Amino acid sequence: MSAPPLSVVVPAFNEEGNVLALLDEIVAALRGVTPFEVIFVDDHSRDGTRAALQSALAQVPELRVLGHERQSGQSTAIRTGVKAARGEWIATLDGDGQNDPADLPKLLAARDAGAADVKLYAGWRVNRQDTGSKKWASRWANAIRSRLLHDATPDTGCGTKLFERAAFLDLPYFDHMHRYLPALMQRAGWKTVSVPVNHRPRGAGASKYTNLGRALVGIRDLMGVAWLIKRSRLTGVRELE
Fold first, then answer.
1. Residue 195 pLDDT
2. Which residue ranges of the chain lie beneath pLDDT 50?
């Protein structure tokens, strides 16, 4: 079987009530648009997430399911999926169903119309369907991140993204790195583009993050990413003949 040009990677932790509906939506959005595979990475869920996904393997030929042997976090789950992916380009969606798979063709169209040095198309949630406190915390975090990293990205927390697999795997890996992909891609010498996308209320289950917990981790990560950017050195390379 030839490798598909697109791999959709979905990290999931305790999302039993969301994953099958999300899978159906991904398939509906992409069949007839481009060959693809869907890789769900179960981050050692304690509910029926893994069993639900396994039950769909026989019905959805594009589906692959990977399971972590211990809970390792969203960034690790994304990286697990990207490393296993066969596609040259990777699309990501959060496993809670708040990202709309119908936006994936829009990101693919933006890539097809974009420049060769754009390696990341990042979703921009223009109509957030979250609680007031979560939206306020996100605006605060985005403002601080933008001032410190100068990544010219209005929304780095959106799970809807499209990026080149090779460019992603060349980035430094650390926990929570998925929240800093625009800055990390730019640090590597690539360009990034933000694309307005839909955002939906969570269908089932509860959020795995709290505003305080995310803020405490975010401050430390911001300082680390700022240090990486400051210490970066880029140069062109020419082979002599």
1. 97
2. 211-212
